[in-house]
Write a structure and sequence with these properties.
The complex is a heterotrimer of chains A (399), B (328) and C (263).
Chain A lengths: L2 H15 L13 H5 L8 H13 L5 H11 L7 H9 L5 H14 L6 H13 L25 E4 L7 E4 L2 H5 L5 H13 L3 E4 L7 H6 L2 H17 L4 E4 L2 H10 L3 H4 L1 E4 H10 L13 E3 L13 H11 L33 H11 L4 E4 L2 H13 L7 E4 H7 L2
Parallel strand pairs in A: 1-3, 2-4, 4-5, 6-7, 7-8
Helix pairs in contact in A: 1-3, 1-6, 3-4, 3-6, 9-18, 14-15, 16-17
Chain B lengths: L3 E6 L2 E2 L2 E2 L1 H17 L1 E9 L3 H8 L5 E5 L8 H15 L3 E5 L2 H14 L3 E11 L2 E8 L4 E7 L5 E5 L16 E5 L9 E7 L13 E5 L9 H10 L3 E4 L1 H5 L20 E5 L5 H7 L4 E6 L12 E4 L2 H17 L1
Parallel strand pairs in B: 1-4, 1-6, 4-5, 5-11, 6-10, 7-10, 13-14, 13-15, 15-16, 16-17
Antiparallel strand pairs in B: 2-3, 7-8, 8-9
Chain C lengths: L1 E5 L2 E4 L19 E4 L1 H17 L2 E8 L3 H10 L4 E6 L8 H12 L6 E5 L10 H9 L3 E11 L4 E7 L5 E7 L2 E5 L11 H10 L3 E4 L14 E7 L9 E2 L5 H14 L4
Parallel strand pairs in C: 1-4, 1-6, 4-5, 5-11, 6-10, 7-10
Antiparallel strand pairs in C: 2-3, 7-8, 8-9
Helix pairs in contact in C: 2-5, 3-4
The chains are: A mainly alpha (399), B alpha/beta (328), C alpha/beta (263).
């Protein structure tokens, strides 16, 4: 990394963050601020101010830099602050600045957080953040019923398929979440859609980019782009909103070459077209957790709701904070791999909000929301009152 | 013809003989009976007649190299003293335990004497005229026969916790004192002090049930699950060194050679491959239950019950079932 | 101050273990390699001393072309120089020979501290440091877990890890060799961009064996591998818990433990 590049980055960041008026509107929407001690530093403009002075006063070395690192890496990157700043103030791309600062810290070998080092090494060696062997990525298919595999083509070489299902690392390796890809396969089966799964799928690169490893992200991006294109894909459907966001916003021009859909969008389209018909309605009270990377980052709020309203009708109740006001589960931005200060756990706050509206099921559309909220239900002792289900599970069960 | 000699280095600290020394003597005794050899031992120290007397009850002759310079173990002084003795008694094998001391001393002494060194052996044999040490590599997933080049003397260090300690006492004691002349030596290493283990809030050695985790659990977020299991079982959480090094748990929870030695009734090992440094700290637990997805994990060598499978798929129902029983 | 750090790569055993035809080594052709974990801690220690007190850090490795990656890593991490003593992977070198090769190169260079990792992840011999110290006739301290102080009078106070939670403190006169234990610090992360860019910015000094002033006629291993064995799990007391699902296994385990009155 040329030192020159760091200087340029610093100059750019300074330019942007110096536009902060310190109006502090962003604090009310920040999950970090909500879940910590409430120090000014633990909020969006607090972070940008810290970055400003760190660059101005040359504090990006030594112990001060480590403190800054701990602060910067506790941001969930949910983007609530950016939405608020755009609406009510000068529209600073706060999360972008935080991520750019993380890149600088990482290049200077001060970041990332120690626990994230193994994640990056695993991503580089095995193409997934868990360090699981890359040859075993598609082993989860062995646990799926034969009849569900009929429509699937596992792309190993020259096979061509128009619709690709990008499974993602969590759904591939976390057996706890096997019902999510399984449900999606059931629905695809029901729709009689032929689709492919890459044998050589690597992490979309979101964790790398969020943690500040832009070089590694590029390697993963190139790998996946080539494989998707070689398979002749015209459309890619993702399970995780993070993969969705990577493909749509961060993979160079991929969105111009392929249609990129989150599975909720894909199935909502099918619902609208009349190809999916809900046969069994759900009578439990359900509510929906908007994943930050689907909602706030990409504006996909209604597609999941179309599906859930069909399934549950009046039993679908919104939490008080929904859509762009939704509360982050705390898993994004690389946080799911590290221990970050959380006086009040975000997942527990959210579970309570779901209970407050009388929900018996919290529906998620993101593997990390699923993991975080499931954890939150347990740690708050509410296992008898509420459970977490992925939207795909409910949809598959309603056909 | 003179029988070949096995010379044993006795390791001691703070006026007590370390357990590993008895194991080394035990290994030597076994070798002597198998291969028609004799054994002797050496204590280096100062003003430790009690210690010397204790050792001499098990091995004859016992050389006592005495000097104020040998009050504390320091590599260079031990090397000078041992070199002289080795020249005198010409042992076939010089045995020492593979400890922090052994790691420092073995290679250096061998290099000084320009002789072969077989470190960290779990067995020692004589094959076709060569000394062969059996060693584990790749944390025990592979075993190797390491052959020492032909030499009048070979230095071998033995892994702690493998060999059976010597127990029989001998009838005739023989202590041979030797003084060591350090006159012209300049010492560049100085012992300052010994640091005792820190007192901590949590003492995992006091628990009957220990749920221990290794790097195989994947990430820090998974720890609460095992903490829960420990809770419902009325036990405590422990871990292997790598988990401590990376900061997932505090040092007081480390089980192993450089951590705590535990002897609970039940020791659950989740995602622990079984590096010997860890095994040393828990092998004497009453019942060891190992859960690992790798059927070749060396931990299964010390386990009473083994489950080859996904640790999370076992732990979750295990917690539920234990809770059920507790409420019944 | 001059610090020399000895590093090497080790193969990473993930799943399958295959031996070469002669059964004398693990077939590493398809195995990924990374820098030996202990060496990373040694490197980090050197770099921190450099950052705090100023030092020239030289990384040295005996290896084949693959070892270049490891040395570029060191340079990207801000080591000042990297030396590769070129070897053919096929020819067996025991640890004594490796130490001797390193000795041949560094004995003519200035050094105050030589740092090595305590041991290799693969062979666990913990030898090279000790042999090197003896060849150089400098004091050695193994299993170092902390540097207490570095003083201007040329001595260093270190803490060594012993067993059972004990440790000892020593003062050592430099030049000295220290073998470093894990946990002494938190090794830094070196980004892929840094690692890529360094290849255009810095060079590795390559030294072929023929350049070394060593008497190769007298250069033989002091130990060699007769053969490798894949050990079977051998425990007479081991009982495998049956079950086709985790739930079944959990159930059966509780059953067995109850049977034995342990519950």
């Amino acid at each position: 990394m040329e030192d020159q590049n760091i200087e340029d980055s610093e100059a750019q960041i300074l330019d942007m963050v110096s536009r902060c008026r310190n109006c502090n509107y962003c604090y009310s929407d920040c999950p970090l601020f909500e879940s910590t001690r409430g120090l000014p530093a633990q909020g969006p403009s607090g972070l940008t101010t810290a970055i400003y002075y760190a660059i101005r006063w040359n504090l990006l070395e030594g112990k001060d830099a480590e403190d800054l690192r701990d602060l910067l890496y506790s941001c969930t990157t949910c983007g609530s602050c950016e939405l608020r700043c755009k609406k009510s103030a000068t529209g600073i791309p706060i999360v972008e600045m935080i991520e750019a600062s993380r890149r600088i810290l990482l290049e200077k070998m001060i970041g990332p957080l120690p626990e994230q080092v193994k994640v990056l090494e695993a991503l580089e060696m095995e193409g997934n953040p868990y360090g699981e062997p890359e040859e075993k990525r598609t082993n989860w298919l062995e646990e799926i019923d034969e009849n569900l595999l009929e429509q699937v083509k596992v792309i190993k070489g020259e096979e061509q398929v128009e619709t690709m299902l990008f499974v993602g690392c969590t759904a591939s390796y976390e057996r706890d979440l096997l019902d999510i890809p399984r449900s999606i396969m059931k629905i695809m089966n029901h729709l009689d859609t032929n689709y492919g799964i890459l044998k050589q799928e690597k992490c979309c690169g979101d964790p790398a980019l969020r943690i500040g490893e832009a070089g590694l992200f590029e390697q993963l991006m190139e790998f996946n782009t080539e494989n998707l294109k070689n398979a002749g894909a015209k459309r890619v459907v993702t399970i995780s909103p993070h993969c969705y966001n990577s493909f749509k916003k961060e993979y160079h021009n991929l969105k111009d070459e392929l249609e990129i859909k989150h599975y909720t969008e894909f199935f909502a389209d099918q619902l609208e077209a009349g190809n999916l018909v809900i046969k069994k309605r759900l009578h439990s009270n359900i509510t929906y957790q908007d994943p930050c990377y689907l909602g706030k980052k990409n504006g996909v709020y209604e597609a999941p709701r179309q599906i859930l309203e069909e399934i549950a009708g009046d039993h679908f109740i919104e939490m008080e904070r929904n859509r762009a006001d939704s509360l982050c589960c705390g898993g994004g931005g690389g946080r799911i791999y590290a221990e970050v200060e959380e006086i009040k756990r975000l997942s527990e706050i959210r579970v309570q909000e779901a209970l407050d509206v009388g929900a018996e099921i919290i529906v998620t559309a993101c593997p990390w929301c699923y993991i975080q909220l499931t954890d939150g239900v347990k740690t708050s002792g509410n296992e008898n009152k509420i459970e977490v289900k992925d939207l795909s599970e409910l949809l598959a069960g309603s056909l | 013809m003179q029988k070949g000699l096995i010379l044993n280095l006795i390791e001691h600290r703070n006026d007590s003989i370390r357990d590993v020394s008895w194991e080394t003597l035990g290994a030597a005794k076994k070798l002597c009976s198998q291969a028609d050899l004799e054994m002797a031992a050496v204590v280096l120290g100062y003003d430790c007649d009690d210690l010397v007397t204790r050792v001499s009850a098990h091995v004859n002759p016992l050389y006592y190299l005495q000097s104020e310079q040998l009050k504390y173990y320091i590599c260079d002084r031990y090397c000078i003293a041992l070199e002289t003795l080795i020249k005198e008694v010409k042992p076939m094998i010089m045995l020492l335990p593979h400890t922090a001391q052994g790691m420092e001393l073995g290679a250096t002494l061998a290099a000084r004497l320009k002789i072969p060194y077989l470190p960290d052996c779990i067995d020692l044999l004589f094959r076709e005229g060569y000394w062969v040490g059996i060693r584990e590599i790749f944390t025990g997933k592979v075993k190797g026969e390491f052959q020492a080049a032909r030499s009048n003397t070979v230095i071998v260090s033995l892994r702690p916790g493998i060999f059976k300690s010597i127990s029989q006492k001998i009838k005739e004691k023989k202590i041979l004192k030797r003084s060591v002349d350090f006159k012209t030596s300049i010492f560049l290493t100085e012992f300052l002090n010994l640091v005792e283990p820190e007192k901590t809030d949590i003492d995992i050695t006091k628990y009957d049930v220990i749920v221990s985790v290794g790097r195989g659990i994947g990430d820090k977020e998974k720890i609460p699950l095992f903490e829960e299991l420990a809770d419902v079982l009325g036990g405590t959480l422990a871990a292997t060194r790598p988990v401590i090094d990376i900061g997932w748990l505090p040092k007081e929870r480390q089980v192993g050679q450089s951590g705590k030695t535990v002897k609970p009734k039940l020791y659950f090992a989740f995602g622990i491959s079984g590096a010997y440094q860890h095994i040393l700290g828990m092998k004497n637990a009453h019942t060891i239950i190992a859960i690992n997805k790798d059927p070749r994990a060396p931990i299964f060598n010390v386990a009473d019950f083994g489950i080859v499978g996904d640790i999370f798929e076992v732990t979750k129902p295990l917690i539920e079932k234990v809770k059920l029983r507790a409420s019944a | 101050m001059d610090i020399i750090v000895c590093i090497r790569q080790t193969p990473m055993l993930i799943d399958e273990i295959k031996f070469t035809a002669d059964e004398k080594s693990v077939d590493a052709a398809n195995l990924k390699r990374h820098i030996n974990e202990w060496d990373l801690y040694a490197l980090e220690l050197a770099l921190r001393i450099k950052a705090k007190d100023g030092a020239k850090v030289t990384a040295i490795s005996v290896g084949d072309t693959g070892a270049e990656e490891a040395l570029y890593y060191c340079l990207a991490a801000e080591a000042d120089e990297a030396i590769l003593i070129e070897r053919e992977e096929a020819k067996y070198l025991d640890n004594w020979m490796i130490a001797k090769l390193i000795y041949a190169v560094i004995s003519v260079r200035p050094y105050d501290l030589i740092l090595t990792g305590l041991q290799g992840e693969d062979d666990g011999c913990a030898e090279v440091g000790g042999i090197l110290a003896q060849l150089l006739k400098i004091p050695q301290s193994a299993v170092v877990i902390e540097i207490k102080s570095l003083s201007k009078d040329g001595s260093i106070v270190i803490q060594r890890e012993l067993e059972d939670g004990f440790s000892d403190i020593r003062r050592v006169k430099m030049p000295a060799l220290l073998t470093i234990q894990t946990g002494i610090n938190q090794p830094r992360y070196v980004s892929s961009m840094r690692r890529r860019a360094i290849k255009t910015k810095s060079k590795i000094t390559r030294i072929p064996l023929s350049d070394l002033s060593l008497d190769f006629s007298n250069f033989h291993p002091r130990k060699s591998i007769r053969r490798l064995i894949l050990p079977e799990i051998s425990s007479s007391k081991l009982e495998y818990i049956k079950g086709s699902t985790g739930t079944e296994q959990a159930e059966n385990l509780i059953g067995k433990l109850t049977e034995k009155g342990l519950f």
